[in-house]
Amino acid sequence: MPIVITEAKIFACTQSKELGEKIANAFGAELGNVITSTYSDGEFQPSYEESIRGTRIFIIGSTNPGPENLMEMLLMIDAAKRASARHITAVLPYFGWARQDRKDKPRVPIAAKLVAKMLESAGATRIITMDLHADQIQGFFEKPVDHLFASTIFLPYLRSLNLDNLTIASPDMGGSKRAYAYSKALESDVVICYKQRAKANVISHMELIGDVTGKNVVLVDDMVDTAGTLTKAADLMMERGALSVRAICTHPILSGNAYENLENSKLEELIVTDSIPLSQKSDKIRVLSCAELFAEVMERVHNNHSISSKFIM
Length: 313
What we know:
The protein has helices at residues 17-27, 67-82, 111-122, 151-161, 176-186, 228-239, 258-263, 291-302, and strands spanning 8-12, 34-38, 44-48, 56-60, 87-92, 126-130, 145-148, 166-170, 189-199, 202-209, 216-224, 244-252, 269-273, 285-288. It is an alpha/beta fold. The longest helix is centred in the first third of the chain and has 16 residues, at 67-82.
């Protein structure tokens, strides 16, 4: 029997509605109609306002905290399963709760594993995400995971800057693999920041491994939260003789004093994707859309074509 490819439908969670519309437009489809009813105590209920029986559906939504973003994704998946969707692909531009990917001290949860199990239990048959905080999170799932790299978005932009004496930097030891991958693609040097934390989001000490004198530095990270690490690293590099410091961070969480930290730092530019909507504008932030990347991968998944080119740094 030949494989019959049915229609694909695209829906978006509340927070990711704007990105969802961009992805649907790039995919060549209309964003599906979902209505969310909210009770006075904050409980909410999403409802598909069109038939999805027997179809492949893509549900777009980043699951960054607060918990309502994850909860909405779970409810959307469960509703689709109960409405007899044939394939349910959870498209998570940002996979939240990923920093808790292991037990780093006694009596703490592994939240990333728990979220993976919740998504599968709800009914997701496939996951598409981008720049996980830790690559091994893919192994927390029993369903297929397509882990995309935002480097396919950032590298063309970096090349367009035509920076002389370009050096790629990692803001911490954990990001060194990512920094080396970018440096290989751009044929540049690499430096690494070594940091020690007093507690979460608080850096007690930072040191630079490598020489940045006379260099245009680009810091590479998967996310920016309070921007404390990035801004401290940028200031340190400028003190050590760098000509300029930029940063590329896939996911702009930007909580707490992040915007204030950016404005008061020597960081020239922060380049991010629209995986998470910005809460305010800043002249220092440049947003590159990930919509076409996700739309292309979704189209290939729907038509059973290879997507291996999007896994290459």
